[in-house]
Amino acid sequence: MEFSIDVDVQRRIEEARELGAKEFRPAGLEADRNAAPLPVDHPFFERCIERGEGRTRWQGLNPPSARPAPTRTVVGTLLVMEELAYWDRGIINAIPGPGLPEQSVLSMGTDEQKEKYLGPFLEPDRPRWACFAMTEPGAGSDAAALTTNAKRDGDGWILNGAKCFIGSASRSDWLLVQATVDPSKGRGGQRAFFVERGTEGLGGFKIEKKMGLKSYESTSFTLDNVRVSAAHQLGAGGRNEKKAGFKTAMQTFNAGRPIIAAQAVGMARSVLDEAINFAKIHDLTKKDRVRDRIEGIARRVRKARMMSVRAAWLADQQRANIIEASMSKALGAQIAQESASFALELLGTMGGAGNHIIEKLYRDVKAMDIVEGTGQIQKMLIARSLVGLPR
Amino acid sequence: MNFELGDDLELVVETARKLAESELTPRLRESEASRAVSEDLLGSWEEIGLAGLEVPEAAGGAGLGAVARVLVNEELAAGDAGAALALDPYGPAFTAILEVAGEDAASEFVASLSRRTARALLIMGEDARVDLVSDQISIDAPWVAADRADVIVVLNGDEAILLREGFTLERVRGAGLRAAGASHLRASSAPIAARWSNSEGAARARSRARLYYASLLIGVMRAACEFSAAYSQEREAFGKPIGHHQALAFLIAEMRIAVDAARLLVHEAAWRVDAGLPSAVEASSAWAECIDVSRTVGPDAVQILGGHGFMADYPVEKFMREARALGLLCGGFDAAIEEAGRELVNSTHPLSLTTHGAN
Ligand SMILES: Cc1cc2nc3c(=O)[nH]c(=O)nc-3n(C[C@H](O)[C@H](O)[C@H](O)COP(=O)(O)OP(=O)(O)OC[C@H]3O[C@@H](n4cnc5c(N)ncnc54)[C@H](O)[C@@H]3O)c2cc1C
User: Fold this and answer.
1) A123 in catalytic set
2) Contact: A305, B351; criterion CB under 8 Å
3) A199, B85, B87, B347: least CB-packed within 10 angstroms?
C-alpha cells in the first residue's frame, strides 16, 4: 500500500496549478459574469493553441517513430484534472480539441475516419472543436430510448431528430451523432454518424442559458433530413462496424466517470480552501461551529478523492473498475454539492450577495451529478452488480 | 499510488479472514453470551503468530505496522468485533507504550504479560475521568470492553501512564462487544508503575488507537452490508426480491459506497503512520468518518431485514449495537472532528498530496 504520488505527477499538478490560476480562473469568471460562453475568437483560445492544447492523442497514420507516446497513468491524468477543475471546471470543457468523441473514433473509427476527423487536430491551424451528441429532449438517462433516426438512402443515410445540451455543438467542425437505424432493436439498433458543420439540414442551434458552467456552450440542435454518405457512419466498412454502436457510446462514459469524480473533488477542494480563507479573514477560526463545517468539508473531499484515485488506479492496472468508477462518480458529485452548500452557510448573507467564488462553485458543481450518468444511474449500475438489480 | 496489499499482507489478511469465517461468525452468539472466546481459539490465534502483530520481531512478535493492524482488525470484526478485541492480548495499549515510551519499554511491556491470556487495556483521557496527584492516579471509566485486566495504560494528554495494580473492574451489561467483556473500571489513588511523556509519540499513539477501533468499525459495517445485501436477494415482497425494489437497491449501493470510502481513509491514515508522516488529522478524519457512516449503516442493515432484523435470530441487530458502541470510544466523533478541525483551519494547503521520493 502506498498513497504518495511520484515527482513527475507532482510536477504536472504544479503546472496545472499555474495554468489554472493564470488562465482558467479569470476566463471562467469572465464567462460567468457575462453569462455566456467565451466566443470562438476569444484570445484565450488562441493561447490554448499556442500552448499546444486542443490536439488529438492520435499519432497520425504514419507516426514518426522517434516520438514514442508518453506513458501517462490514468491516476496522473485524473489528478491533473482535479487540479484544473479546482480553478474552473467549465473551462476544461471549453478548451478546443476533439473532446468527448475522440475515444470513440480512436477505438472504433476506420483509418480514413481517423485521418479525416482527427487529422485536423494533429497540428491545428486554429481552435477547432468536435462534439458527441447523444442526449435528446426526450431521452437522457435512458439513452436506449433515443429517437433520432438514420434511414438508408441509396448507400448513404438520412438523419432526422433533435439533440440537446451538447457541449460545443455550434462551434464544432463535426458532430458525432448517435442515432437508431432500427428502433425495433433498442440499443442494439444504434449507430454513430459524423455530421460535418454546414451539412444541409443541420441547424436550429440554440445555446442554452445555464445555472452554472457558463464558460462552455451546451447547445440544442435539429437534424432535418440530413444526408450523409456511408463513410460517415463510425466504423463503417471496418472490422468494428458491428460494435460501433451503443456499447461504444457507453464506454466513452465509463472511462470518464472517475475523471468527472476527480473534477468534482477539485471543485470541492476549491470550496474548502475558500472557506478556510473566509474563516481566517473574518476571524472565525475559533468558533467550533465553523471549524466543524470545515472539518466536514475536508473529510468529504478526502474520501471522494480516494475513491476516484482508486478507480483510476484499477484502470491503470487494467482491472475491471466499473463499480468503483460508478461509486466514485456518485460520491464525488454528491460531496462536492454538499461541500459548496455547507460553505455558503459559513458565508451567510455574504454568500447571498452572489459575488463570492463559493457561490459560483455552488452553481457550477450541480452539473457533476447530472452529466455522464446521473447519481441515480450510477447507483443503478452498482446495484446491478451488488444485488442483481434487473435492467 | 498502489492499492495492492502485497503478498505478505495478503497472507495475513487471508489467515484472519479464514479464522473469522470458520471460528468467529459461527460462534458469535455463544461468545456474546459467555462473554469470552474459547481457550482453544486463543491458543490457535497465538500459534498463528498474529497475537503480537505489532510487537517487534526482536521481542517475539510479527513486527508489523498500522496497515497490518487495520487489515486484520477489519477481517476479525467482520466475524465478531467483540471476539477481535478478546483475541488481542495487548490492544492499542501496546502501541501507546511503543509510540510514547519507545521500543525497549514496549518489549519490556510484552515480556511482563502472557501472550495467550493477557488483557492490557488502553484508557484514553477522553473516555474517562482521570485525576493525577503526584505519583498516584484515580480513574473512573464507565465502560471498558473487558471483564478483567492485567495492566492499564492511560493515554492522557502527552503522557502514557502504566498501572499494574490498584484498579477494579466491575461487570456491567455492556451495549455491545460482550465477547470481550464489559466493565466499569475504577482506580482510586492507585500507584503509577511507570509514566512517559512525549507529545509527538502521544499524537501517534492516539492516531493508532483511533485507527484500531476505526478498522473494527469497518469490519462490522462490512458484515452488515454483506449480510443485508445477500438477504435482500432472497427475501421477496410484492412479487420480487426486496433488493430489486429501487428504494432498497439504492440504499444498498449507498451503504457500500460509504463503507468503501471510509475504509480508504483508514488505509491512507494507517499508511501515513507506517511511513512516519504526520497522521493526526488523517486518523481523526478517518475515525470521524467511520463513526459518521456507522450512524446509518448499522440501522439501515436492520431496516433491510425488517422485523427479522430486530430479532436476535439474525446478526444485524448485533452489528447495529456494536457499531454504535465502538464509535463511542477514543472521545468519539466530537473529539475527532475537534482535533482535525483545529489543525485544518490553520493550514494553507490542507489536502496536498504527498510526493514520493521528494525532500
Ligand atoms: C452541463 C451539461 C452538459 C452536458 N453535455 C452533454 C454532451 O456534451 N453530450 C450529451 O450527449 N449530453 C450532454 N448532457 C446531457 C446529460 O448527459 C443528460 O442531462 C443526463 O444524461 C440526464 O438526462 P436527462 O437530462 O434527460 O434527465 P432524465 O434522464 O430525464 O432524468 C431525470 C431524473 O430521473 C432520474 N432517473 C432516470 N432514470 C432513472 C431510473 N431508472 N431510476 C431512477 N432514477 C432515474 C435521473 O437520475 C434524474 O434525476 C449535458 C448535460 C448538462 C447539464
Assistant:
1) no
2) yes
3) B347
Q: Is the CB of A135 under 6 A from ligand 1?
A: yes
B345 to chain A: which residues are within 8 Å by CB? 276, 279-280, 285, 290-291, 294
User: What is the number of domains present in chain A?
Assistant: 2
Chain B contact for A4, CB < 8 A? yes
Residue A297 has which C-alpha cell? 468539508
Question: Does residue A84 lie in a domain region?
Answer: no
User: Residues A314, A225: one domain?
Assistant: no
Distance (angstroms) between ligand 1 centre and the Cα of A90 equals 18
Contact between residue A230 and residue A237 where contact means Cβ atoms under 8 Å apart: yes
What DSSP state is assigned to residue A39?
P
A8: closest CA among A60, A70, A67, A51? A70
Nearest protein Cα to ligand 1, atom 53: A367
Q: Is B194 exposed, middle or buried (0-12, 13-18, 19+ CB in 10 A)?
A: middle
Query: Which among A233, A294, A365 has a CA at the least distance from the CA of B285?
Result: A294
Tell me the CA–centroid distance for residue A167 and ligand 1, in Å: 13
Q: Is residue B271 less than 8 Å (CB to CB) from chain A?
A: yes
Indicate if A138 and A40 belong to the same structural domain.
Answer: yes
CATH number of the structural domain spanning residue A322: 1.20.140.10
Whether residues A181 and A305 share a domain: the answer is: no
Q: How far is B301 from chain A (nearest CA, A)?
A: 14
Q: Tell which residue, A370, A257, A382, has the closest CA to residue B256.
A: A382
Chain B, 321-350: which have a CB under 8 Å from a chain A CB?
337-338, 340-342, 344-347, 349-350
Spatial contact of B243 and A387, defined as CB atoms under 8 Å apart:
yes
> Could you tell me if A1 lies within 8 Å of chain B, comparing CB atoms?
yes
- Alpha-carbon span A114 to A112, nearest angstrom: 5
Residue A379 within a domain: yes
Boundaries of domain holding A329 = 246-386
Let me know if residue A159 belongs to a domain. yes
User: From CA B331, how far away is CA B322, in angstroms rounded?
Assistant: 16
Residue ending a domain, choose from A241, A273, A291 = A241
Last residue of a domain, one of A188, A222, A241: A241
Count of beta carbons in the 10 Å neighbourhood of residue B56 = 17
- Together in a domain, A251 and A209: no
Backbone φ and ψ for B42, nearest 5 degrees, come out as -60, -40
Q: What is the 3-class SS of B24-49, one letter each residue?
A: HHHHHHHHHHHCCCCHHHHHHHHHHC
**For every one of its 391 residues, what pLDDT tens digit does chain A have, with 9 covering 90 and above?**
999 999 999 999 999 999 999 999 999 999 999 999 999 999 999 999 999 999 999 999 887 665 566 678 999 999 999 999 999 999 999 999 999 999 999 999 999 999 999 999 999 999 999 999 999 999 999 988 999 999 999 999 999 999 999 999 999 999 999 999 998 888 889 999 999 999 999 999 999 999 999 999 999 999 999 999 999 999 988 777 766 677 766 666 667 899 999 999 999 999 999 999 999 999 999 999 999 999 999 999 999 999 999 999 999 999 999 999 999 999 999 999 999 999 999 999 899 889 999 999 999 999 999 999 999 999 999 999 999 999 8
User: Same structural domain for residues A303 and A227?
Assistant: no
Q: Is A268 on the interface with B (CB under 8 A)?
A: no
For domain B200-350, the CATH class is: mainly alpha
3-state per-residue secondary structure call for A193-223: EEEECCCCCEEEEEECCCCCCCCCCEEEEEE
Residue A257 · residue A325 · CB < 8 Å: yes
In a domain, A83, yes or no: no
B250, B288, B338 ranked by CB distance to A383: nearest:
B250
